[in-house]
Q: What sequence folds into this?
């Protein structure tokens, strides 16, 4: 608060001399310019723009001037104050910038310090690979189906046209579940393939059926670099009117393109599965050597063992007998089915040399795969 | 089936330059799985010649017998002079013809041959054994050739050492390809060339004076051809070409008669059996075994027979297990040469059996007696019954030609009547199956190529050939057409799939579970589900614990682990330990998978018919025999959960992390877990949380029992959680309602309550929430302590309560009233007292 102006005498008042106004202005500008810190500037600000400063006092006295002198004095003092305030603001910005530059430099840290404070997790690549395949099919309109791993023999074999004495039944090395009496005649096995899910799907609903079913399957193999007794398949089935081998080829070609990439040749080898007819094994041109390692000892290919082809899986047109066992009329409907081994795809798609790495659960193997592949 | 290319060319005139790999590629496209193409003699280099031993000097004074020989190799050594060779074998005599490799040659290995000093003499080459030449495993001394070859003759050509062998894995439907005849037929079709069928032979018609055979079981044996040959020279040996073909096909030459039966089997696909007629007592009978009968098979094993076994018998009883293996008592006698007289004795009168047996009978017998033989392998897959006569004739011809025998005129041929199988097929069925157009002409031509006769127009009447018992319905025929036309030539198109439903809520939940756990720093593992008693003992389960009731396997991989898991923990903790053993110390891992819980009522899954859809009751019976297979998730933690670092100290994994993992999964299911103190193996009795949702226990979490940790060699304070995803995700239909977000200010009040140390914090919290009423926005426990200030046997729980109304600014009085109401409920339910009150 400023004190009352005791010397105020309206009668005696006369206008400030212009040279005094100029001097007050110049003193203010000089004080701001020489202020080296924000604190000094603050003091200069009080001294030269505060209520008791010469210019403030002069400003206040304008009101007491005779009317004819008011305009000229107002102009003179207003200009001076404007210049002073401008200089103050400018110096304020300059000094703040100087301060910021100094302090923030002092606050600098080493941002390259590692901060692995949050533990990293990952999903198993076989899980995410299965999901990627599921998604490809779901995008085509398929549904994802599943079934039990301990399965009735009828569903795992008989309904798939593998009757008890079928030679193919002994080809698959099956784990048998003990019957209540301890014998092997439980009629229950660890499923050797995901194909029983086909049967369950067909028993469950009327065609049209389009389903993909990933899952664990079991065979009595010993674990080594290329075999595991517990492995994963993805099976797909389509049952509709007019489904043909051509539909099967188109579907698999699309899947391979989405999963592995385009421009690779597929080889369709006639084969035999009791549940499909015709049946085929699908080989994919080796995407590493593109077949150039075949018969070429100078350029061996580890991915395809220099055979030029990588086995993808088996497929075919659903055997009408399978449809009959599920109550689907083969005169009206036909279907295709195929099954792929996920471990092998993972080995090829991601250069995994040893299947044991997928089994043993070493976190160092799984971590790089992250959340999706 | 091993197929020497040189032999295959005898039946199909393949282009001269065609390599084994070329032929393999064609056969692969026709559906034969050619596993390898073996290059015989690829690194072999001559000179390798016939030599005649001129002199033998036995060198004494060495650890083993050593012979210093001179061998006439004709002009092969460039000088015509006898070749000086030191040899370690002793199975040859002066005058014998042998195989000599000369310096400069390279034997398979590769082993370069050079002249060298050994045992005090020069050895300029080597007298070779079969193994050294890559002809087989026989290393019983060196090869002694039949006498007719001239010294100096090229032995590479003579012994057919350079060849290519296709190894074909024959699928069960293609029994006919277990023969040169069958593979040649496929090769002929693949190249569009004519086939010289080795089964097209002149065979005299059956007559009544052949060897007497009685077939008592015409179902098990629908064809029995018997021929007899007398005057066989026991000294006669298999000629080189025959031995070589057997060797290349993977069969060891034994004696002429046996070699001939094996050779004909490879050639025509018909397994033959040769009996020494002098050892057969009376007529041959084919019948099923009587319970308790025994037979000593020619591998010397005395076998107890089952009533299902089909037998070949004579008056003495069983003399052969039909289609599987002959008996020892009537087998061909190995020729023996008397060293004194030089006279060779052995079987001279031979009965050749070429029969056809029912596949299932043979398959079961081979399985029952664990006796898979070359014969049973073929009978199981189906042998051409019409080839039996030709096969027997071929064997007779070879015995006459090579062994100097005389074919007897009697021809026994007992054949059960066979209805002619014809299959009616719409000419456009292959088109409809493949999704392309072949046309009737192509279909007819392809079916004729496989040996079928075809009549008719729009509907074709097809009679499949006798060697294709696998062709039984129109689709089988369609497949033949499509495969011969080439799968590569079928166009690719996409089916019109109707709109799908996407993933189910459960499937999305399962994915979410993996994602949130991985996001929380857990690494997924997949373990085998096999466990044993030891794993259950290590978990410290009581004798009566339900998890000890397991599904057991008949044929487990390991006898120590015959059961399927009833908990994910054994496998998961095993993976934890494996990681620790490899130096990974700070671990948080998880597994999702099924466990296998036997039903209360055990039953057997019925074998249902396959000619129609089973009834709902039958399907229910199937499912009733399966165990419950709920899906679970489990985690295990050890070491530091939050690592120490430059930022400060970390935190070890604790029971709380295990419980939090369960809460994380529950949130993914959109449900709230109720946590209760519990005692449940394998957890620490004071640090085990029972987890439930709406009154249903869904799992447990906490720190493992120190005994379990010790038994499993895990780090101290290892923690784990296991919950049932099916129960957690039982109702995923709920939708979150968007909460009103109030813009009015919050009123925060803290309370510190003293309760008995045994009172669970969860109960206090529930009471506070219930008492605080609707104004409570959130509640957070920010401090827990015990000790003097709390009082003996007490603990202090300090909470921050945040109150807010949706329609007004709360007054201090309102907030205080709500807090006091919360404290009052906590006091009445849990005995809580305000600290300082």
A:
């Amino acid at each position: 608060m400023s004190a009352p102006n005791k010397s105020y005498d309206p009668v005696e008042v006369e206008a400030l001399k212009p040279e005094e106004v100029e001097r007050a202005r110049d003193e203010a500008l000089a004080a701001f310019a020489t202020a080296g810190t924000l604190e000094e500037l603050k003091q200069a600000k009080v001294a030269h723009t505060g209520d008791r400063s010469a210019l403030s006092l002069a400003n206040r006295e304008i009101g007491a001037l005779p009317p004819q002198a008011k305009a000229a004095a107002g102009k003179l003092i207003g200009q001076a104050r404007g210049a002073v305030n401008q200089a103050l603001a400018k110096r304020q910005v300059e000094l703040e910038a100087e301060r910021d530059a100094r302090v923030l430099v002092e606050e600098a840290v080493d941002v390259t310090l590692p901060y692995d404070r949050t533990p990293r997790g990952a999903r198993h690549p076989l899980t995410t690979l299965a999901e990627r395949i599921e998604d490809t099919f779901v995008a085509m309109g398929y549904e994802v189906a599943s079934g039990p791993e301990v399965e009735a023999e009828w569903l795992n074999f008989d309904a798939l046209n593998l009757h008890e004495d079928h030679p193919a039944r002994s080809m698959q090395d099956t784990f048998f579940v003990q019957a209540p009496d301890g014998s092997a005649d439980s009629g229950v096995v660890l499923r050797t393939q995901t194909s029983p899910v086909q049967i369950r799907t067909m028993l469950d609903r009327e065609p049209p059926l389009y389903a993909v079913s990933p899952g664990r399957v079991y065979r009595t193999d010993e674990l080594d670099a290329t075999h595991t007794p517990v492995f994963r398949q993805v099976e797909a089935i389509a049952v509709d009117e007019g489904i043909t081998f051509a539909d099967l080829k188109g579907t698999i070609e699309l899947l391979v393109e989405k999963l592995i990439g385009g421009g690779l040749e597929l080889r369709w080898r006639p084969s035999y599965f009791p549940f499909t007819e015709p049946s085929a094994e699908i080989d994919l041109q080796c995407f590493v050597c593109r077949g150039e390692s075949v018969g070429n000892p100078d350029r061996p290919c580890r991915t395809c063992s220099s055979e030029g082809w990588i086995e993808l899986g088996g497929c075919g047109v659903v055997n009408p007998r399978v449809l009959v066992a599920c109550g689907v009329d083969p005169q009206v409907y036909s279907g295709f089915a195929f099954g792929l081994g996920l471990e092998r795809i993972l080995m090829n798609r991601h250069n995994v040399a040893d299947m044991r790495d997928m089994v043993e659960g070493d976190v160092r193997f799984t971590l790089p795969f992250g959340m999706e592949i | 089936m091993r197929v020497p290319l040189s032999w295959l060319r005898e039946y199909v005139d393949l282009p001269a330059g065609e390599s084994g790999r070329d032929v393999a590629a064609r056969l692969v496209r026709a559906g034969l799985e050619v596993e390898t193409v073996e290059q015989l003699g690829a690194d072999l280099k001559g000179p390798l010649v016939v030599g005649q031993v001129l002199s033998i000097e036995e060198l004494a004074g060495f650890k083993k017998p050593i012979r210093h020989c001179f061998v006439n190799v004709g002009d092969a050594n460039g000088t015509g002079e006898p070749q000086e060779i030191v040899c370690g074998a002793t199975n040859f005599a002066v005058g014998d013809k042998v195989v000599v490799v000369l310096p400069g040659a390279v034997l398979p290995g590769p082993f370069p041959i050079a002249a060298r000093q050994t045992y005090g003499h020069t050895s300029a080459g080597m007298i070779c054994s079969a193994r050294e030449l890559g002809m087989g495993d026989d290393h019983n001394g060196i090869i002694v050739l039949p006498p007719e070859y001239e010294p100096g003759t090229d032995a590479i050509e003579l012994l057919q050492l350079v060849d290519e062998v296709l190894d074909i894995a024959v699928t069960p439907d293609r029994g006919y390809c277990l023969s040169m005849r069958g593979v040649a037929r496929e090769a002929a079709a693949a190249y569009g060339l004519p086939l010289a069928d080795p089964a097209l032979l002149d065979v005299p018609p059956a007559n009544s004076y052949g060897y007497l055979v009685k077939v008592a079981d015409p179902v098990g044996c629908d064809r029995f051809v018997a021929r007899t040959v007398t005057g066989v020279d026991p000294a006669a040996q298999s000629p080189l070409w025959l031995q070589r073909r057997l060797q290349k096909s993977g069969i060891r030459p034994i004696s002429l008669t046996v070699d001939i039966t094996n050779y004909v089997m490879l050639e025509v696909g018909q397994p033959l059996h040769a009996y020494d007629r002098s050892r057969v007592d009376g007529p041959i009978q084919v019948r099923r075994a009587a319970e308790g009968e025994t037979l000593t098979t020619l591998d010397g094993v005395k076998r107890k027979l089952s009533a299902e076994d089909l037998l070949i018998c004579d008056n003495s009883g069983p003399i052969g297990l039909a289609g599987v293996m002959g008996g020892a008592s009537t087998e061909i006698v190995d020729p023996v040469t008397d060293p004194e007289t030089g006279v060779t004795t052995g079987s001279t009168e031979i009965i050749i059996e070429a029969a056809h047996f029912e596949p299932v009978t043979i398959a079961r017998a081979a399985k029952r007696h664990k006796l898979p033989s070359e014969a049973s392998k073929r009978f199981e897959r189906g042998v051409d019954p019409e080839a039996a006569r030709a096969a027997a004739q071929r064997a007779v011809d070879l015995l006459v030609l090579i062994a100097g025998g005389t074919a007897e005129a009697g021809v026994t041929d007992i054949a059960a009547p066979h209805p002619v199988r014809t299959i009616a097929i719409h000419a456009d069925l292959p088109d409809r199956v493949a999704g392309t157009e072949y046309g009737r002409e192509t279909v007819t031509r392809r079916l004729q190529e496989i040996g079928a006769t075809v009549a008719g127009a729009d509907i074709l009447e097809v009679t499949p050939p006798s060697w294709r018992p696998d062709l039984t319905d129109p689709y089988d025929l369609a497949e033949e057409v499509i495969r011969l036309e080439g799968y590569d030539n079928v166009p690719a198109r996409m089916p019109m799939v109707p709109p799908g439903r996407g993933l189910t809520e459960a499937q999305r939940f399962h994915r979410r579970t993996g994602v949130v756990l991985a996001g929380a720093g857990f690494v997924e593992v997949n373990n085998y589900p096999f466990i044993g008693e030891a794993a259950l003992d290590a978990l410290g389960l009581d004798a009566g614990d339900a998890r000890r009731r397991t599904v057991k396997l008949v044929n487990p991989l390991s006898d120590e682990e015959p059961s399927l898991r009833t908990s994910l923990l054994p496998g998961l903790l095993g993976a934890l330990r494996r990681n620790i053993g490899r130096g990974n110390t700070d671990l948080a891992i998880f597994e999702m998978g099924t466990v296998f819980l036997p039903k209360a009522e055990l039953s057997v899954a019925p074998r249902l018919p396959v000619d129609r859809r089973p009834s709902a009751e039958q399907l229910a019976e199937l499912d009733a025999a399966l165990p419950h297979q709920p899906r679970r998730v489990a985690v295990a933690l050890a070491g530091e959960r939050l690592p120490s670092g430059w930022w400060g100290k970390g935190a070890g994994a604790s029971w709380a992390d295990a419980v939090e993992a369960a809460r994380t999964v529950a949130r993914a299911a959109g449900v709230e877990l109720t946590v209760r103190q519990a005692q449940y193996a394998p957890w620490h009795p004071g640090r085990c949380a029972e987890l439930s949702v709406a009154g249903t226990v869904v799992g447990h979490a906490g720190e493992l029992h120190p005994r379990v940790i010790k038994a499993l060699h895990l780090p101290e304070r290892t923690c784990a959680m296991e919950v049932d995803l099916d129960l957690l995700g039982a109702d995923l239909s709920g939708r979150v309602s968007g909460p009103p977000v109030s813009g009015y200010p919050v009123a925060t009040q803290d309370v510190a309550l003293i309760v008995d140390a045994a009172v669970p914090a969860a109960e206090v919290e529930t009471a506070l929430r219930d008492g605080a009423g609707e104004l409570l926005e959130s509640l957070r426990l920010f401090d827990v302590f015990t000790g003097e200030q709390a009082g003996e046997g007490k603990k202090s729980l300090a909470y921050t309560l945040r109150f807010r109304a949706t329609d007004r600014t709360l007054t201090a009085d309102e907030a205080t009233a709500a807090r006091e109401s919360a404290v009052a409920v906590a006091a009445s339910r849990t005995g809580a007292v305000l600290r300082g009150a």
